[in-house]
Amino acid sequence: MTIPHHKALVNVPSIPPISDEQCVLSVKPYTAAEADRWDAFVRNSPGGTFCHLSGWLRVVARVWGYPLQALLAERGGQIVGVLPLALVQSCWFGARLISTPNAVYGGVLTDEAAANAALLTAARQLAYERSVDFLELRDVSSHNFSAQGVELHQQDLYVTFTHALEADPEALLRSFPRDIRRMIRQGEKHGLTSEIGGLELLDEFYDVYAASVRNLGTPVFPKRLFAEFLREFPDASDILVVRQGRQTAGAVLSFYFRDTVLPYYGGAYPAFYRAGVSNFMYWELMRRAAARGFTRFDFGRSKRGTGACEFKRGWRMTEQPLPYKFLLVRAQSMPELNPLNPKFKLFIATWKRLPLSLTKWIGPQIVKHLP
């Protein structure tokens, strides 16, 4: 073919062919050697959460002995998706694959439909091989990804609440309703103060937390779980203690991830409710986190229809449903292992009346089976 004289030839550099290895998507089990790559992917993924980090899996494995079954998807040597998973086996409640135990968030983390399908398919195969009752995915948001042959059932039991943090304390305070501001000031008027630290505050935190969950009729976690979190994430976790004089009024253990502070385990003594201890405690956490440069407050999950949910709703934060999903394997219906189940009414009423020392001893032996 003759090229016209008025058209110039352009030298285009040749593009190397894409090898089959660069195109093939593969799924493989997670190993400890992959921890740094795994965490880098989680931190750089828009949907990544603190609960997706490999450190979370290490903590629950050390404390409870859950066998880890986590999966990662790769293409061309690059991670394109992860699924933190652990096997929980109980003589009381059967066997489950959960993403992620003791976590409010989990599920498949990927931006690709193909990687999502591959991870779900591999998880389904694991679930059948381990002969579990169900696979539970604690997804943060609903998405349109699916996988052929993997039928997931959605449970809409939980919601979560978030709020933007202003660096200016006065502007942050004004972002809340008047009654919330009044309760925060009530705490200040009653001489409440706060202190932030780490393991040195663990005993003080654990006493108030254990009392709080006992009063709710809920078995308490072992102190070791909190110690392991603080040791695993020394730069991304802390304890805030609220006091009135020398008396402990409340305490909260929080996690930090990217721009977000997440108060995860907390409690307060009823004697300080009138002093606004809970409002003051979360305000102090927000104020301190904002001063350190964090711009988002994640109030965590609550069950619909509970007092905790209504308390958080009163702050008028952004409310988001948590669409947890289940793959039924041996089970015929989705589990109802939560305090709203009428079957647990007598247990909860009895637990509230038990001595605190007894609940600290028995509780950890129960919650191991309720991750």
Write up this protein.
The chain has 371 residues and is α+β, with helices and mostly antiparallel strands. It has 12 helices and 14 strands. The strands form 2 sheets. Strands 4-5-7-14-8-13-12-11-10-9 form a 10-stranded mixed beta sheet, with helices on both faces. Strands 1-2-3-6 form a 4-stranded antiparallel beta sheet, with helices on both faces. Strand 10 and strand 11 (247-257) form a beta hairpin.
Q: How would you summarize this macromolecular structure in one to three sentences?
A:
The chain has 371 residues and is of the alpha+beta class.
The share of residues in extended strands comes to: 25-35%
Largest sheet: 10 strands, mixed
Instruction: Note the quaternary state here.
Output: single chain
Task: Give the strand order of the largest sheet, numbering strands 1, 2, ... along the chain.
Answer: 4-5-7-14-8-13-12-11-10-9
Query: Structurally, how many domains make up the residues?
Result: 2
The CATH topology of the largest domain corresponds to Aminopeptidase
The end-to-end distance, rounded to whole angstroms, is: 72 Å
Shape: globular
How many runs of DSSP E, i.e. beta strands?
14
List unreliable stretches of 5+ residues. Answer: 1-20
- Class per helix and strand makeup: alpha+beta
CATH class of the largest domain: Alpha Beta
Tally of contiguous helical segments: 12
Q: What do we call the CATH homologous superfamily of the largest domain? A: Gcn5-related N-acetyltransferase (GNAT)
Approximate helicity band:
25-40%
Rg from Cα: 24 Å
- Overall pLDDT level: 90
Label the CATH architecture of the largest domain: 3-Layer(aba) Sandwich
SSE succession: HEHHEEEEEHEEHHEHHEEEHEHEHH
